[in-house]
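Subject: Protein record for review, amino acid sequence with backbone structure tokens
Concerning: The relation between a protein's sequence and the shape of its backbone.
How to read it: Take the token row as a discrete description of the fold.
Enclosed: The protein record, placed directly beneath this head.
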Amino acid sequence: MTYKRSASFLMILILCGCSISTTQKSVRQSSTSIAGSRIESSNVGPTVDQEIIEALRTVLTWKSTLTERRIPTVIGLSEDDQTSTPSIWTELRGGLKLQAYYDNASRNDQISYYLSQENYFEVIAERGYPFFSDIVRTVQEHGLPLEVALLPLVETALVTTAVSNKNAAGLWQFTRATGKSYGLPSDEWYEARFDPIRSTLAAIEYLKYLATLFDNQWLVVFAAYNMGENELIARATRAGLEPSNENIWEIRIPHETRNHIARILALANIIEKPSQYSVNLSEFEDIVQYENVDTANFMSFDEIATHVDISVEDIGKLNPAYLKNHTHPVYPQYILLPVPEARKLKTALNL
């Protein structure tokens, strides 16, 4: 297995690294941007020993992820499936389950908020390619209401590398601590919270835990996801209430959390009845199939591009979790590509 191979390699490096002086201090600086740009690290890097330790931490974190959560090798639909599958908006409408709460007065301003944004759904359709369709289907496969699939729209407007002022990151806005708890490690090379596939599976796992905790009261689940379950429980206790869909508005939750819930409901309502709001839901492009190729190598995107008919820029868009246009020096070393390009890469690398 790749993990075993990488772990053995790391242990050799650590033994060799014992003779390396550790007196040199390192300075690591990084700048993080919002709205779709990458994290960039300064040229001043850690010592060899520190790089080894960071890489080992990443590998050990991935061990539990690999054993407990299977990541699909192929995403998207085959050409045959595409012809018989309804549009993603139709699929969404078919899985919405919280209509009883759409008419809550708290959402009215949020409907106006979305309707006032020119070309909003056109932008969403562009940004959501190719991941959003797979997110919707994955949420559906796990039996969750499809309002859940609207969380990345509310959180980040489908910007895969979004970072909040509280350092929550990715489509699902995981904090670093919560991300690590749900198998989303990060170092200077790789930010798993930016990985749309892995972060979606982590978010579903977290949301399932919250749904169990709050007895499938989904408005409460959305509140807990936004503000933290412990803080929500504490506020509900002070109010003398057991949190439910009916009384969530009576609990003194933060204004941001109120807007968060209301925006999910507002978006769901618009998507369910677009004609009522004179909204044209721009269709997503046909989703070709994509494949995760385990290169088993530390490779630059430039090198990968020499083997496939796809630009370095497009490789980066498909693999936003890699922060330096390289695969990870140790793990992970997979690359997501359209299936025809994946075949070319595997042939070139004799995989």
Observations:
- The CA atoms of residues 104 and 195 lie 34 Å apart.
